[in-house]
Task: structure prediction
Amino acid sequence: MESSSQPPSDSRRRPPDAPRTDPTRAATPTGGGSPAGTGHAGPTGHARTHARRHHAVNRRHRAGLAPPAVLNLAGTAPAQPRPGVRRAVVSGGLLDLAAGNRAEEEELAGATTEPDDPRRVPNRRRRLTLAGLALTAVLSAVMLVATLINWTPDGPPPRDLTSTERERLAAMRVTNYRELRAGLHITAGTGASRTDLLGWVDWARGLAYLDVGGPGAGASRGLAQATPTVLVIRPDPTAVPTPAMPPLVPPADGWRLPADPDLEPLLGLIFALAADRPDPADRWAGRWVGREHLHGEPVDVLEVAAPDAGAPASHTPGAGASDTAIPTRYWLDRAGRLHRVRTGLTGIGPVTVTLNRADRPTLRPVEALGGRPGLPRALTAAERDRWRRMPSRLSTVGGATATLAVPVAAGTNLRGSGWLSWTAGSAYLAVTDLDADGRRTLVRHLGRKVTRIDDAGGSARAPLPPPAAGWRAGAHRTQAVDPLVAAALRADQRSDAGRTERVRGDSLAGTTVDVVQVDSGTGPLRYWVDRSGLLRRLELPTRSGAWAQLDLVPGRVPRLTPPRKR
Result:
């Protein structure tokens, strides 16, 4: 009985080992055997079945076996597809690992193609499209970053100050005073008239130390130190316009009173930011503007008006010289600590003061401001013994070479050098004014008489021997040096008048000294006495509030009086 089995309806679901029937084959010969696919055949059918299996193995594509004919790798003609089955047309170059993309290889090799090559136009369009998309993505990313940096979310609208915020403003100056010091960055003015100041302020001791720069610094470019009453500068015309933090140890020389007080309003603004007692809270009126972050801390921006007429002008920094077109704003944190001030000063313009509360070194005032404050105390037994032996030691030495620096007033800074003789009770000096045209004045002290000669000599050193004629007494622009020189000549006379105390220990030209202050009737005098009992420096305050110095080097001196006429 013949088999009635039929081939599966879907040839794609045929088991892997099922033989395939080639529709192009001829019909089964009449030589006998069962129909194709029955597996029952005679010798001829067995050979035919073996051939089919061998042909199917050749058409399979497995690892290690012959590739399919469609790849055209075996050199045989590809099999024809069966009716009703679609086959994907795959370029042989894509599957051939040894062959690359012919269009790309020709472009890289510089081969020329026809303008109407259908392969080149799509590739070029695709590359241009990808490049445009990449450029658009980069521009979008840049604009997004810039927007995120500059964008600030809309906050609450401005409102009136609350009672808590007024109390924080009232306690702001006391907070500054108790925290002692802070770093400063001041920007005053705009454009070519802008002045930049970097440095520190010590509110507890009343001292500011700054580096002055910027295009509008002018003659004040250099270093500056100030107290609430005195400003001294060390000009440096060769300094770069960009300011930098000043050296922690200030230079010892070159300090003078400025001729132009353009920095005084700024320093008054700085010192007015601190006080030893709080302000009345009801005297502050203004509004809350917004909230920001400074130095990683959230702060409130408070815009205030000047206190009422009954309040001192210092309650609002710069209120006395405030530019009404620019309101005063304070950046305060929750603890009432000030981080920034923005206001306006007449003649200067907008002023911004930024505080760095983490930068707070100990400041050392220069000698023109009195030097380090020290800890005044009574003299010990050894110090009192040296103090009492000082007059006899000076009489024994006989004289000393003298150098003086006297900051008198704005625009008057005297410098001089010469000699003192305790034996003859005389002094002979050449004095010049830094702000004058270089004219020299010879000054002679003989007893209680002081005479002078205006000399046009170019040297700052007093000529020897002293002139015999031309001396005149009377008022003179250099007479501010007379009290200092007279006090030095009286140092060899023992006097216990006034209270005597040791201000501090110090050093001068490598010599250890004790700074002893005597409160006389005309003001304090400071004597720098070394451990041998010799006087090395004498200081006294001038009418400007700065301190004048007369440095002494004990030793032999020339004849300080002109020879007598025969």
